[in-house]
Specification:
The complex is a heterodimer of chains A (432) and B (98). Chain A is of the alpha/beta class. Helix content of chain A is 28%, strand content 26%. In chain A, strand 14 and strand 15 form a beta hairpin. In chain B, helix 3 runs antiparallel to helix 5. Classes of the chains: A alpha/beta (432), B mainly alpha (98). The interface between A and B is large, with 66 and 48 residues. The complex binds flavin-adenine dinucleotide.
């Protein structure tokens, strides 16, 4: 097989049936001359897709549509609770994408999508047509999951699951809490954005409380039976925060069979199905999630609330000219992370350039690496490498990936250093 | 039109699969290295080396050493094990040039 030349390979593919390659790619370009790819959402998926499309093929016009002129990264946002970062340090803009890569930026929000006409309408009134559309609009919250917890209640009991004012609000509440106070973190069932995020958050809060309000407690109320990097987190909590003792700063409780059903705002109490009541001084309620509204509104999601795609190209199962990547899309078993969104964007950009140029689509490779800080000098990681299996489903490559093998202080310190270095690299690769 | 496209896409996908991808597209793998190994020199003090200054031979040797547990590291052995030696060689070649 290795001896097959690229030309013969392409001929082989073409020989499988007339028009295999041109069937989709041969659709005339809307714009007549250069192909126009529109990317919706300037987060980790969208920004990476826009940049890599231009890197791969400068003949493709790329327009990125994002309502915020500046983007605040969720990665790193938990560090705020430990006093290790501020929002300014987590803020990026789209200048490099425009100046260095020639991406056209429209600071606006998509208000509607006419898939038949391949046309978008923006909140500002403008219309934009596309040859292919890449959507990376992120998540929305299910406000119907817990009685009493809606968008208005989130102003008082922040989810802080989209970085920005919500993160600051939660950090201020933690700082204002009396010593001996209780923080409740309510964690949803899978799948949700950033599986290890709630536990990194608890760690960073515990680090700060240990110094400033050591009699306090963080109670994690989890809709799951187990969680990402659990053994590593628990070992770290034991080492730094007295986990497992009566004085532990962190307690974890699985409510897998006894879900939280109600918020009593007045008394700051969460009540579960069996009538258990949890009172907190600070309530961080992370609701279950779905794909962003724009994806739901236009029928790109299925009953799960996420957008099903053909993994090789990221094409929506419901519209071949729309690709969905990042948290909004269903790429399981790849978790919903910024690293994964960046990796999905690259595979998608490669496929989109192939579809436009009518060349064979390369084998897709995806990667996820996720570092978490337990303390400033204690980092842990999990990695996954993914490929298509024989049934064309995404599958982890056997024998690869997994969590940090060693947990001694030296490795923990190295991984803490890498946590910060990888954050900076990921930002540079996505936005720079 | 739409129907035909879907059939073609499925055919293409299965064709690619059964042909076991005659040629390795190193980009599909190598782009993911940049998530951690920043291309730009902005982050000169990063403890994660930029790959630009290394030769293909140096990168390939390091990748094989990670894969076969001859060179200890926190993360790379977990990643390198996912790829064939030929893929690692192609990736090394691509990274040293780009
Ligand atoms: C606390 C926390 C910590 C995290 N830490 C990490 C980490 O350490 N490492 C990691 O890899 N991941 C981490 N993540 C996960 C990461 O933030 C997400 O997985 C990532 O942001 C997903 O990228 P995305 O492109 O899908 O969505 P987003 O980054 O959310 O981007 C979506 C963009 O689409 C825009 N948009 C939405 N609707 C429209 C519309 N109608 N028109 C135009 N634009 C629209 C939004 O404004 C937004 O900018 C963390 C998440 C949280 C909550």
């Amino acid at each position: 097989m290795a001896g097959l030349s690229r030309r013969r390979f392409l001929q082989g593919i073409a020989g499988l049936g007339a028009g295999v390659l041109s069937g989709c790619g041969g659709v005339p370009l809307r714009s007549g001359g250069k192909a126009h790819v529109v990317v919706v959402g300037g987060g980790f998926g969208g920004a990476t897709a826009a940049k890599y499309l231009r890197l791969l093929d400068a003949n493709i016009q790329v327009t990125l549509i994002e309502p915020k002129a500046k983007y605040i990264t969720c990665p790193g946002s938990n560090w705020l609770f430990a006093g290790l970062a501020n929002l300014d340090q987590l803020t990026v803009d789209y200048q490099d994408l425009q100046d260095r890569y020639g991406v056209k930026l429209l600071v606006d929000r998509i208000s509607s999508l006419d898939a038949a006409q391949r046309q978008l309408r923006l909140a500002g009134g403008q219309s934009v047509t596309y040859d292919r559309l890449i959507m990376s609009p992120g998540i929305d919250f299910r406000w119907d999951a817990m009685a009493g917890y809606d968008q208005a209640a989130a102003e008082q009991f922040p989810h802080a699951w989209q970085a920005g004012p919500q993160t600051l609000l939660l950090a201020r509440q933690l700082q204002a809490m009396p010593d001996g106070g209780v923080v409740l973190i309510a964690v949803p069932a899978d799948p949700y954005r950033c599986p290890p995020g709630p536990y990194e958050r608890a760690s960073m809060m515990a680090y700060w409380l240990k110094q400033h309000k050591p009699r306090s407690k963080i109670l994690i109320l989890d809709a799951k039976r187990s969680f990402s990097k659990q053994a590593l987190f628990e070992a770290g909590w034991t080492k730094h925060y007295g986990y497992g003792t009566t004085n532990s700063l962190i307690e974890w409780l699985s409510l897998a069979d006894n879900p939280l059903l109600q918020l009593d705002k007045q008394n700051r109490v969460l009540t579960s199905e069996f009538g258990d009541r949890f009172r907190g001084d600070v309530l961080n309620i992370i609701p279950p999630q779905t794909a962003a509204q724009i994806a739901l509104q236009h029928g790109l999601a299925d009953a799960t609330g996420w957008c099903p795609v053909r993994p090789l190209t990221g094409q929506s199962l419901f519209d071949e000219f729309i690709h969905v990547i990042g948290d909004a899309a269903h790429y399981a078993p790849i978790p919903k992370s910024a690293f994964a969104a960046n990796s999905e964007a690259k595979a998608c950009a490669l496929a989109v350039t192939s579809l436009i140029n009518q060349t064979a689509i390369a084998e897709a490779h995806w990667l996820n690496t996720c570092y978490s800080l337990i303390a400033p000098d204690h980092g842990i990681s999990v990695a996954g490498v993914y490929k298509l299996d024989a049934a064309n489903a995404i599958a982890p490559v056997k024998g690869a990936g997994g969590v940090s093998a060693r947990t001694d202080a030296q490795v923990a310190a190295t991984e803490a250093d890498y946590t910060r270095a990888v954050y900076r690299s990921l930002i540079a690769d996505t936005f720079g | 039109m739409k129907r035909i496209c879907y059939v073609s896409a499925a055919l293409l996908a299965s064709a690619l699969n059964t042909m076991a991808y005659a040629e390795i597209d190193a980009r599909a793998i190598a782009f993911n290295c940049r998530n951690c190994h920043a291309e730009s020199s902005l982050d000169a003090k990063s403890s994660i080396p930029s790959l630009k200054s290394l030769s293909a031979q140096q990168i390939q040797q390091a990748l094989l050493d990670f894969k076969y547990d001859k060179k200890p590291a926190t993360l790379m052995p977990r990643l390198a094990k996912a790829y064939s030696d030929a893929e690692l060689a192609a990736v090394a070649k691509f990274l040293s040039r780009n």
